[in-house]
Amino acid sequence: MGTNYYRALTTPLTPVILAGIALGYDAARLTLAAPTPSDAPIAYYMVANLTTGLTTKVVAYPSTTLSVMGLQPRTSYSFQVSAVSIDGSSSTSLISPTITTGALPVVVVAPAAAAVAITRASVGTARRTAFTTQPQITIQDSGGNTVTSSAAVVTATVSAGGTLVGTTTATASSGVATFTDLGVDGTIG
User: Fold this and answer.
1) Quick one: which of 78, 50, 83 has its CA closest to 64?
2) Contact 63/30 with Cβ under 8 angstroms?
3) What is the rounded average pLDDT of the residues 8-26?
């Protein structure tokens, strides 16, 4: 003679939402109390988004942490959860605390350099020596604003009648390049 085993075929107990937090700007995490053991294990949870009216299937068992993705930035959400096993669905949980997602990350695009301007002219020249006041060049965008993110290398040239002495390049810092020992040599006139 064999032994017969029977299951009570009970549905899972109602989930209890302990906490809810935003995960950045497009997701939330719900933490549930540990479920009370029943005849059949929980197969998945159904998460009802009360803000949008959508319900999402979340496979998380035996974990008690549920992640809800695809949310909108800076929006308040409330959720309800039910547990599903082979024997059926639980009652729906109480409404979660309100969870507000964060702001969308801001991406700053540096303006493109469009021009260079001499913002301090060289002064005090003598043959084969550095200017007493070194030239300063500013990298500007199309609106004439200093491109403070620029670290461009500026090269000085002379148009005619002379040659440059000293260091002929300067690297911009915060969009401004200042020469340090630039001078000129050549014939006057």
Assistant:
1) 83
2) no
3) 88
* pTM across the whole model: 0.54
Give the chain's count of helices (H) and strands (E): 0, 17
In order, the DSSP letters of 50-93 are TTT--EEEE--TT--EEEEE-PPTT-EE-EEEEEEETTEE-PPP
Sign of CA dihedral 5, 36, 99, 76: positive
Residue 125 — very low, low, confident or very high, per pLDDT cuts 50/70/90?
confident
DSSP state of 153: E
Contacts with 107 (C-beta within 8 Å, 6 or more apart), sequence order: none
Closest CA to 65 of 20, 18, 32, 99: 32
Asked if 83 and 35 touch (Cβ cutoff 8 Å), the reply is yes
Q: How confident is the model at residue 142 (pLDDT cuts 50, 70, 90)?
A: confident
| Structure confidence at residue 110 (pLDDT) | 62
Overall size of the chain counted in residues:
189
Give the whole-number percent of the chain exceeding pLDDT 70. Answer: 90
